[in-house]
Amino acid sequence: MSGLKDSKDVLRQGAVRTIERRAFLKQSLSLGALTLLTGCDVTDQDSVQTALNAVSRWNDRVQAALFTHRLAPTYPESAAVKDFRYNAYYGEDAVPKIDGASFKLGLSGLIDNRRPWTLPELYALPQTSQVTRHVCVEGWSMIGKWTGVPFRTFLERIGADLSAKYVGFECADGYYSSIDMASALHPQTLLTFKISNEILAPKYGYPLKLRIPTKLGFKNPKWITAMYVTNRFPGGFWEDRGYNWFGGI
């Protein structure tokens, strides 16, 4: 068993390194232009990283300014794929196993009522469905049908500070992510419980997945176990490794 676990760890670490190399190459493409624009010395790594971070933050501000509340395209239910593609940086055999009977969603930060929520309590919330396209940063996309509570409804129910800047998420597999409050309040942002009219299978993020059709797939965290509201920039798993934070499409 230990040998199998070691093999899984090697595969997972290899996948992370692969995506980190992609992020590095994306940054490298702009390095020449960055040198001309900022005058930074490319041999001074601290200076280069500072300039790259400034450009990334500028990109985020521009995307946020353009975001407003535009809607992502929706499709007829017949267009939804029944066997949706599994997507993670590790294999399906490493998907988190979560006991729904004992599950409780943890809440913290700028929220009035921080009591944890059980799955029956979450399932009792008003729900809606959407058929939208999931767009992956790796270059593929797929249309699916998701069902859940509008995230704004949930934030209002728990007394979240809707004037705060960010909502952050923690996941059972160690993944973490965050979004701006405008994206959290977007009418198409759902805290989802179902895909294709069925309770999320473990490989799709059981028990909770955030669905944001206006953002790239890595901004749609799965296996959510906790969330918080904050004014401090929370970052994200891939964003802290070089990906653009806003992640809009």
List key phrases describing it.
249 residues, alpha+beta, Sulfite Oxidase, Chain A, domain 2, 2 domains, 5-stranded mixed β-sheet, 10 strands, 22% strand, globular
Task: Describe the structure in brief.
The chain has helices at residues 2-29, 31-38, 45-67, 119-123, 151-157, 181-184, and strands spanning 104-109, 117-118, 128-135, 141-150, 166-171, 176-180, 190-195, 198-199, 209-211, 224-230. It is an alpha+beta fold.
Structure overview:
The protein has 249 residues and is α+β, with helices and mostly antiparallel strands. It folds into 2 domains: 2-67; 77-241, Sulfite Oxidase, Chain A, domain 2 (Alpha-Beta Complex), CATH 3.90.420.10. The protein has helices spanning 2-29, 31-38, 45-67, 119-123, 151-157, 181-184, and strands spanning 104-109, 117-118, 128-135, 141-150, 166-171, 176-180, 190-195, 198-199, 209-211, 224-230. It has a 5-stranded mixed β-sheet with strand order 2-1-10-5-6. Strands 3, 4, 7, 8 and 9 form a 5-stranded antiparallel β-sheet that branches. A hairpin with a 2-residue loop joins strand 7 (190-195) and strand 8 (198-199).
The number of helical segments is 6
Q: Unreliable segments (pLDDT under 50, ≥5 consecutive)?
A: 1-31, 33-38
**Average pLDDT, to the nearest integer?**
84
Biggest sheet features: 5 strands, mixed
Helix vs. strand class: alpha+beta
Helix proportion of residues, in percent? 25-40%
Give the strand line-up of the largest sheet. Answer: 2-1-10-5-6
Overall geometry: globular
Find the count of extended strands (DSSP E, 2+ residues): 10
CATH class of the largest domain: Alpha Beta
- CATH architecture identity of the largest domain: Alpha-Beta Complex
Number of domains: 2
SSE order, one letter for each helix or strand? HHHEEHEEHEEHEEEE
Question: Beta-strand percentage?
Answer: 15-25%
Can you tell me the CATH topology of the largest domain?
Sulfite Oxidase, Chain A, domain 2
Q: What is the CA–CA distance across the termini?
A: 42 Å
Rg on CA atoms, Å: 19 Å
CATH superfamily of the largest domain: Oxidoreductase, molybdopterin-binding domain
